[in-house]
Amino acid sequence: MTDSKRRKGLLAASALLGGVLVLTACSGGDDDASGSGSGDSSQAQSDAAAAKKSSEALIKITPKDGSDNASINNSAAVTVTKGKLTAVTMTTQDGKTVPGQLSADKTSWKPGTQLERSTTYKLAAEAKDSEGRIAHENASFTTVSPANSFIGTFTPDDGSTVGVGMPVSINFDKAISNKAAVQKGITVTSSSGQEVACHWFNANRMDCRPEEYWKEGSTVTLKLSLDGVQGASGVYGVQQKTVTFHIGRNQVTYVDAQTKQMKITQDGKVVKTIPISAGSPDNKTYEGQMVISEKFKQTRMNGATVGFTDDDGKGEYDIKDVPHAMRLTTSGTFIHGNYWGAPSVFGNVNTSHGCVGLQDKKGANDAGTPAAWFYDHTLIGDVVVVQHTGDKTVSPDNGLNGWNLDWAQWKAGSAV
């Protein structure tokens, strides 16, 4: 073999050997500190050094980033473990800052106000661990939309004092198909210990009451725990609220259309008798137990709004200043003052279009009239029992008049 050929052969062998060595080094099979392991050791040291520089504080933001159906109640929160929160900022999509509250130990934060529906919020949080190293976390979420949520408008108002006949009445802004789940999220209790049952009149309304009128002087508590409760397909509750109201003295009024007298009782004793004029033979007043749901010192009453029209389509009456008006039904039955009728009418003739009229003066400023006395001595929630009119019993859902169902009928309307 010539020298030239020998050199070429040695070069080829060297190249092949070099390739084998490279492959061996990449295989990681040699644990010798002076061989291939030296690179891994350097990397491990680098990783350890980096770990020492990273904060141990772990920040958690709820709801999760990207959530698009978040609750408006107690859903947003920031917590940290192995550290303390040093800064939390919550803003709406238009940059408005949402105030919040940091816990005393600085490990949690929550908004100070209820969130708005169908709104996107951004949260940015910062925390430090025990070594002063800083950690950051960010999230964005959108609250449930009005189209995908429901609320219940309730009566009576929180803190109010009402009569013994006042039911808890809740009207939902969406039709409820999952009535049992919604009803389970609503509780009504009384300090009197009376059993309370709820009754669904339709898909949008549920009323709650005891078997007998509320005990005077008691306190009733309504608790709405509907946050996240599915009321219908794709529709969820958002309310989380507790309401209390108080029951006043036990006053029940009896209207007799035959005698044309009204007797006001308190604790079963008659405290006053007032002459009245009920519905005429052509426009009889409903019979039954009715609950006063609204009071107006003066209001307008137009017959056209309740179906009493002349041939020209205008109302048979349109009185713009009816004094001392107290509503008994949604359909338009009132007890109210009457200044246009002669004094001889009251106690003698039934002349109204279905309301119960009491003698009064125009302007509603004479405290000495029978209508003014009754108005001043009446609470929302007082019961008025109308008798001997010759008309049908008022429908229990026409106003707050569920007392016209007996207890068995009432409980039969419960979904649970």
TrEMBL record:
Residue stretches of biased makeup (Low complexity): 39-51
InterPro entries (UniProt xref): Big_10, LD-transpeptidase, LD_TPept_cat_dom, Transpep_catalytic_dom
Gene Ontology CC: one annotated term: extracellular region
Signal peptide: 1-25
Superkingdom of origin organism: Bacteria
Pfam families for this protein: Big_10, YkuD
GO MF entry, a single one: peptidoglycan L,D-transpeptidase activity
Sorted UniProt keywords: Acyltransferase, Cell membrane, Cell shape, Cell wall biogenesis/degradation, Lipoprotein, Membrane, Palmitate, Peptidoglycan synthesis, Signal, Transferase
Record keyword Membrane present: yes
Domain spans labelled L,D-TPase catalytic: 251-387
Residues of the active site: H336 (proton donor/acceptor), C355 (nucleophile)
Pathway where this protein functions: Cell wall biogenesis; peptidoglycan biosynthesis; Glycan biosynthesis
Keyword Cell wall biogenesis/degradation: yes
Name used for this protein in its record: L,D-transpeptidase family protein
Taxonomy of the source species: Bacteria, Bacillati, Actinomycetota, Actinomycetes, Kitasatosporales
